[in-house]
Amino acid sequence: MFAKTTAVDPFDLVIFGGTGDLARRKILPALYRRFCAGQFREGARIIGAARADLGTRGYRAFVAEALREAAAEEAGDAAALDAFLATLDYVSLDARGDRGWPELAAKLTEDRVRACFFSVGPSLFAPLAERLRRHGIVTDRTRIVVEKPFGHDLDSARALNATLAAHFHERQIFRIDHYLGKETVQNLMAVRFGNMLFEPLWNSLFVDHVQITVAEAVGVRGRGEYYDRAGAMRDMVQNHLMQLLCLIAMEPPSKFDPDAVRDEKLKVIRALDPVQPHHIVRGQYVAAPGRDEPGYREEVGNPRSTTETYVALKVGISNWRWAGTPIYLRTGKRLVARSSVINVVFKHAPHSIFGEDAGQHANILSIRLQPNEGITLQVTIKEPGPGGIRLIDVPLDMTFAEALGPEGAHHPDAYERLVVDVLRGNQTLFMRGDEVEAAWAWTDPIIEGWESRGDVPKPYEVGSTGPTDAELLMRRDNRRWLGIRP
Fold this sequence. Notes:
It is a single chain. The protein is an alpha/beta fold. It has 2 domains: 11-147, NAD(P)-binding Rossmann-like Domain (Rossmann fold, 3-Layer(aba) Sandwich), CATH 3.40.50; 180-414 and 435-475, 2-Layer Sandwich (Dihydrodipicolinate Reductase, domain 2), CATH 3.30.360. 37% of the residues lie in helices and 20% in strands. The protein contains 16 helices and 15 strands. The protein has helices at residues 21-36, 55-70, 72-75, 78-85, 101-107, 125-134, 154-167, 183-193, 224-249, 258-271, 296-300, 400-403, 405-409, 414-424, 433-453, 468-475; strands spanning 11-16, 45-50, 88-92, 113-118, 142-147, 173-176, 207-215, 280-286, 310-315, 327-332, 339-346, 364-370, 374-382, 391-399, 458-461. The strands form 2 sheets. The protein has a 9-stranded mixed sheet with strand order 14-13-12-11-7-10-9-8-15, sandwiched between helices. It has a 6-stranded parallel sheet with strand order 3-2-1-4-5-6, with helices on both faces. Helix 6 runs parallel beside helix 7, helix 9 crosses helix 15 (433-453) and helix 10 (258-271) runs parallel beside helix 15 (433-453). The mean pLDDT is 89.
């Protein structure tokens, strides 16, 4: 029932920022799980690179501890852990200078894939790219993985793309958005383009509206300095929510090919209408009575901050498929629950034969990204019992953990899939440079607009569903947000 794991050819993977938080929590556990799954052939090597003077032995001890925290179940296999640690090497280097670079170059193997993961702050992307080229590390089989943020606005994104393009071909640059590696996001494409049931209905004739929600229960969690400069619009909407919107709205590509998929996503971004001021809601969380979580300003130590921690938008797409069908986006921190879901709300039946007492009922396709990944289709049926016909809505549920059994419940983490795609050279789930720039070109006027108007975010309490203005945004259209459920 499930595809077999296919091993990738031997490779050298360099993790710049190999002792950082992202490497510790995500990248190294992902690599270890793929190693345990038998996806790495003998000879694969992982090289940590950072400023700390650890040495290979010290780095292996660091990684072992990280895996015991982030991948405790798998790390309990002592033999597997020792075998994985044996693939690790380490070099201490200066990202802005020349210290350590000759040593790194000497550790790399000729004639194999060289993947360089930039698990560092964006200010180091350009220096790393330049030094990789200067020290002869770049070959035709070298690939770089760049984490977000991809710039702070359109101008900085263009400058970053130009710098990377000076040292690498576009086919060598992998701009990672971990949302695209989630199992349910990829299943969205399978549901749309692999089933005749949905695609004929996937347009403004049958879809009333779409809601895309990415709700977080946590605050900024140590990212206060960065987040206070970025805000929810730059941190979430410009990348994560934009990618989900594209997958929902894109035309069927001619084939499941990296450029074919990304061409269609780019068309969606370029078709987005400018967002009107009355279609934007910004919010900032404040402390709630009876709860011990601080408000945003207290958490970041900036009592006058006007950075938004919540954004809701009404978005229109000017093309034949979606003209007239709004897409509502919302994302926020410190909300009532952690939940990422796409709800495709279909129109009501044009005429009800059951009378007014039956009420209005709509089919809703819900794609849950996290937690409890799965897909649910809400359909209308007769409520069981004697007497007249009373209609109720019930879900046809495909929760992966239930529908696919134990194997379906333990599908790979997003980083596992994306790292393996890098090693294979498959860019389908990664963003292209022109796609990033188009997203900023749409986002920048929204940010510039509220800055020029001096808009102040609306307060909302920790543990709520967001500011009341977001509810009003929907009520003006005689619609309502679907609930945020864990």
